[in-house]
Amino acid sequence: MLRSAFRSSFAALSKHAGPVGSAPASAPAAATASNPDLLDRLQQAMKFIADPANPGFDSNLHGLEITHAEEGRVVCLFKLTEHHTNRMGNLHGGLSATIVDIVTTLACVSKTNHPGVSTDLNVTYLNPATVGDTIRIEASVIKAGGRLAFTAADILRNHDNVIVAHGRHTKYMAGGAHKKA
């Protein structure tokens, strides 16, 4: 039942229209105008995904705010609390991987209308982010082909634009990544 609700939250995205193309994950958030309809649909999906009432690890992302959405590109903000850190007080590596997973999936959905299934996820950790920091996540679809979609995300400290982590995520798209519903 939960999985069907998750799928239906993404299925609602199939009715959006917006500009074609994507910017690299490191592009400034204001590079292209956000698509308001797409932004609203992704925000609704994210509310469901990170709802603390739902079981699963994704509820750790409760409070993640999608601030920009266009076809193939999503930008989010997330304020870190103690709950998000490791024993050294830095953003937990596992949560960083979850952020890359979820936000690149949203970017993928914004381009293909399908979340796909993860086949590979890689995160490179570069700098710390600590309790109280707001991080900015910039995710984009690098290429969506016949069966695979390749995505990337940068996690940055919002106050100084220092890259905290860089991730790459490959998704298998059962219906074909290039097809839009």
Automatic annotation (TrEMBL):
Keyword Lipid metabolism: yes
Subcellular localization: Cytoplasm, Cytoskeleton, Spindle; Cytoplasm, Cytosol; Mitochondrion; Nucleus
Top-level taxonomy: Eukaryota, Filasterea, Capsaspora
Family: Belongs to the thioesterase PaaI family.
Domain (Thioesterase): residue spans on this chain: 88-162
Oligomer and partners: Homotetramer. Interacts with PCTP.
Protein name as it appears in the record: Acyl-coenzyme A thioesterase 13
Keywords: Acetylation, Cytoplasm, Cytoskeleton, Hydrolase, Lipid metabolism, Mitochondrion, Nucleus
Gene Ontology biological process terms in this record: lipid metabolic process
Single GO MF annotation: fatty acyl-CoA hydrolase activity
Described purpose of this protein according to its UniProt entry: Catalyzes the hydrolysis of acyl-CoAs into free fatty acids and coenzyme A (CoASH), regulating their respective intracellular levels. Has acyl-CoA thioesterase activity towards medium (C12) and long-chain (C18) fatty acyl-CoA substrates. Can also hydrolyze 3-hydroxyphenylacetyl-CoA and 3,4-dihydroxyphenylacetyl-CoA (in vitro). May play a role in controlling adaptive thermogenesis.
Superkingdom of the source species: Eukaryota
